[in-house]
Amino acid sequence: MDLPVLWFAIVGLFFVGYFVLDGFDFGVGMSLPFLGKDDTDRRVLINTIGPVWDLNETWVIVAGACLFAAFPEWYATMFSGFYLALLLILAALILRGVSFEYRHQNKHLAWKRRFDLMIVVGSAVPSFLWGVAFGNVVRGIPMDSGHNYTGTLFDLLNPFALLAGATTLLVFFTHGVVFVALKTEGEMRERAMRLAKRAGVVTIVVAAVFLVTMALVRSTPASLVLSAVGAVALVVAVLCAARGREGRAFTLMAVTIAAVVLAMFTAVFPDVMPATNDPANSLTVANASSGSYTLTVMSWVALVCIPLVLAYQAWTYWVFRKRVSRATVAQAAH
């Protein structure tokens, strides 16, 4: 495996980590209106991700940094062509982070409800727009010979990209609700399991349409296999949720997200950004990558740092592995 291909795989794995981990964060945030009957319930929901949400978001920072260093042409084209969508994602993430920190600074319900709304919006907007962005990567975009995006905003809002956005929104929502069931007990856990079953059925239907459409738009043997793995994992995850096995359901939801993200990456390979107007203008792993020296240095740094990051992430989740209950949240408020 040459270095550009290796770093294409590493970038893909970082995005897998981001969507799996921040995906359930987004789902928990979107679940506030459905599972939070009162302020204590909403505090329970927020506390399930309180120790880890900011750590999960660092994955996208690392993914973006790797993209910038390993594939500067891809980074430039993607971030200039998708700048409005990415700006909205950034604004939503900022509002969401601020809301987590400030909602408890005032005891008035109106104050908390405003920040709760910002958490919901700040979770839903990135969930949808990340799907739109990656849907356009798979479908391809019009580019000139200098690899500059030549389309408009409305070209990005095509039916396939919108379907991809709806899929990521629903998958993250179901992933988050299952996580709530995994991290809570009592009535909250039961409500989360019921919601996971209902949301899971809708998610299966929309995801099936998306995966079939993606196979028709762009596919490789590897992407078809990964899509099938993701589809089976999603169905089994919903069945496990229906039987109250939230641990297995959460693991299978993570497998679903990982398989679908990898399917999208393998569907375009060896391109990284296909051109819809002229294949000669496409960005590939070869023509978008940095030089050999840069990739070599990055590889040695990654060899040292990635195991440390994974170990720290695993340790954090182990430390905060206990379930959250209304009793513990209510007691902490006094």
Please outline the helices and strands:
Elements: H1 3-30, H2 32-35, H3 39-49, H4 53-70, H5 72-81, H6 83-102, H7 109-139, H8 153-156, H9 159-183, H10 187-217, H11 221-242, H12 246-268, E1 271-273, E2 283-284, H13 292-319, H14 326-332
Antiparallel strand pairs: 1-2
Helix pairs in contact: 1-4, 1-7, 1-9, 1-12, 4-5, 6-7, 7-9, 7-12, 9-10, 9-12, 10-11, 10-12, 11-12
Written description of the protein model:
It is a single chain. With 334 residues, the protein is mainly α. It has one domain: Formate dehydrogenase/DMSO reductase fold, CATH 1.20.1630.10. 78% of the residues lie in helices and 1% in strands. It is built from 14 helices and two strands; from the N terminus they run H-H-H-H-H-H-H-H-H-H-H-H-E-E-H-H. It has helices at 3-30, 32-35, 39-49, 53-70, 72-81, 83-102, 109-139, 153-156, 159-183, 187-217, 221-242, 246-268, 292-319, 326-332; strands at residues 271-273, 283-284. A two-stranded antiparallel sheet has the order 1-2. It is globular and about 60 Å long. GO terms for molecular function: oxidoreductase activity. Belongs to the cytochrome ubiquinol oxidase subunit 2 family. Its EC number is 1.10.3.-. Keywords: Cell membrane, Electron transport, Heme, Iron, Membrane, Metal-binding, Oxidoreductase, Transmembrane, Transmembrane helix, Transport.
